[in-house]
Amino acid sequence: MTVIDDLIEALGTETVLTGEAIGERYRSDASTTGKSLPLAVLRPSNTEQVSLALAICDRHRQPVVPQGGLTGLAGGANARGGDIAISLERMSGVEDVDTAAGTMTVLAGTPLEVAQLVAETAGFLLPIDLGARGSCQIGGNLSTNAGGIRVIRHGVTRDNVLGLEAVLADGTVLSSLNRMVKNNTGYDLRQLFIGSEGTLGIITRCVLRLRPLPAARLTALCAIDSYTHVVSLLKSAQRELAGLSAFEAMWENYFRFNAEALNLTFFDKATPFIVIIEQDANGSDEDKERFETFLGKTFEDGLVTDALIAQSEKEARAFWSVREGHLMDQLLPGLINLDVSLPIGQLDDFAGDCEKALFARFPAAHVSFFGHVGDSNLHVAVWIESPSEHDLHEIDAIAYDLVRKYKGSISAEHGIGTLKRDFLDHSRSQAEIGVMRRIKTALDPNGIMNPGKVIPLRS
Ligand SMILES: Cc1cc2nc3c(=O)[nH]c(=O)nc-3n(C[C@H](O)[C@H](O)[C@H](O)COP(=O)(O)OP(=O)(O)OC[C@H]3O[C@@H](n4cnc5c(N)ncnc54)[C@H](O)[C@@H]3O)c2cc1C
Question: In CA terms, which of 160, 176, 312, 432 is 20 to 30 Å from 108?
Fold first, then answer.
């Protein structure tokens, strides 16, 4: 019997898709890596089916690729020809909200936005939030340790997970569904699966930590004349605004490109930096006044040259629409979005060096910068006309060689997947990569879990 025969016998043809039945969506994630048809797509409905599927694949030494919402930007969910994709899409739903503890238990295939809405209905905030919220899944968020726009206040995904259930390559179900903040009982196994991009097991459900839902949000758009002032503004905001929940910076050409694309004008004059500051608030007039006073003071101190406070949710959305820059992908098809971390004080020096080095090699390139500056996370948007594979590799090499020079990280939040795999040693030591290999071998001795992702191939 082939692996497909065994899978169909155990799970049925409704769960095991092959040939023509495999839809276009399973062929690639949102990265710019190539599309490939998996050998089959499995769509299990529960943990037991995931366990059965993995045990069969392990017996056949059949490589598998977990797939969530396929919004990943590192190629981690892409199947190579011959791989079997395991989609979590049918394992969707919030199982429980514990209002006393402030936790929710969620199936891995639940779209992030669905979980956020359930939390809100129960009076809580699920702090994991990113632009792909409508399509990405909780399991994908955990597997990539997603960052996003609320990290400055509530941490990355890792900081918001209390427990999880995962299935190992041999089908073992590891239930670690802890619900408590404090639990010091030996190795913290959940952390192995968070950020390991499906290379150690498949996450099937998890317990997430919720926070009180803010009654209101105050949002401002600030024009700033130097990067030194951006950093000073960040420090003041962290000191003065108790509920600071976002501090997002756009370099001038990123802001201009996206504002023009959206046909929006905010300021009379261009400035080198534009920052969105957002604060969770209690909805009172006093809170609003404190926010206005804070901004007035930054103006007097010369940190900000101009500022707008959103007077409605619609206005706040307009600020965010420029930052999210969704039209950029349409106007510059094949846009490359590099995601790196650097010491906060050096983000602009890096941007200058990176722009210079990219222009030296690709004089007609579009290069612009934006990022979650409060979390030391910079995004570099690069576009060149009809790039070859070699050009794409050169762009990565230029940026990541500089990241190494600045002692930064080649991935702040998107993960490693295949796109950054060969640059992992720019940010992790050989000893660290060696331990990763040993953990991988211990949990997945036959190497069936998402092979070729994250860990560099042996030469
Ligand atoms: C418009 C847009 C905005 C984005 N903004 C951000 C942002 O602000 N911050 C950020 O961090 N990312 C961002 N991303 C990237 C992406 O949304 C995140 O990486 C997200 O967490 C991926 O979730 P997914 O469900 O789509 O995972 P997928 O793309 O399906 O998979 C990602 C990786 O996780 C693995 N995986 C998926 N599900 C499981 C599971 N249940 N168990 C084990 N492994 C699994 C896959 O094998 C793959 O390696 C953005 C992407 C887009 C398109």
Answer: 432
